[in-house]
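Archive maintenance. Older records in this collection stored only the sequence; we are now back-filling the structure field for every entry so that each record is complete. The fields below show one back-filled record exactly as it appears after the update. Entries are processed alphabetically, and DNA-binding response regulator, NarL/FixJ family, contains REC and HTH domains is next in the queue.

ARCHIVE ENTRY
Title: DNA-binding response regulator, NarL/FixJ family, contains REC and HTH domains
Organism field: Paractinoplanes atraurantiacus
Length field: 238
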Amino acid sequence: MSGTTRPERPEPLGDGAGGPVGEPVRVLIVDDDALVRAGLTMILSAAGDVAVVGEASDGAEVPGAVAAHRPDVVLMDIRMPRVDGLAATETLRRRAGAPEVIVLTTFDADEYVLRALRAGASGFLLKDTPPAEILRAVRRVAQGEAMLSPTVTRQLIAHVAAPAQPSQVRAAQRLDRLSERERDVALALGQGQSNAEISAGLHMSVATVKAHVSRLLIKLELNNRVQVALLVHDAGLV
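Back-filled structure field:
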């Protein structure tokens, strides 16, 4: 799916446990269950580097809530009464300057995982994920990384391990647009590597890694690194 890329945020200091220096990660919670919203708000607000700036109870409310609160990350439920989280994610991620999206749900079916990631979500977590891991996901996604639960990662790998031949050819042709160095970075993204890991493995600075990621996103007409990883898997390269 084509989309509009947004610049990656600066790398965090130290071990990457927090948001940008002096600026909390702004989070919008979207869920039709008021108790879930309250629980997530309590978890996130307990961290000094994360701020819950707004809530929405349906996907139809997301565009207005994003415009009003300007979050960095949206925690998005899937099943909602009018507009579900998958449709809301796809609509949101098509917009310039869109926030990152983490789908947080009780359902881990393959179809939901792939639809969410192809729609532009940077993370997919189950609602029984421990609070510390939810916080870690918010921080990582705000920094331009991806975050998938181990269960979801296993499902994704199993699903794309043997793509249909026509899809594999099309994916490989798209990757042919990249320079050799951009292709190296794309393969590293397909392996789930972070910017720091790519930097060490390819012997380049983190800033250079980010520049390569931004360029290959433009060339591939994708809007985040998760979609690059899916394309690499579809091409049978990982």
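Update note: The radius of gyration is 17 Å. Residues 44 and 135 are 7 Å apart (CA to CA).
Entry marked complete.
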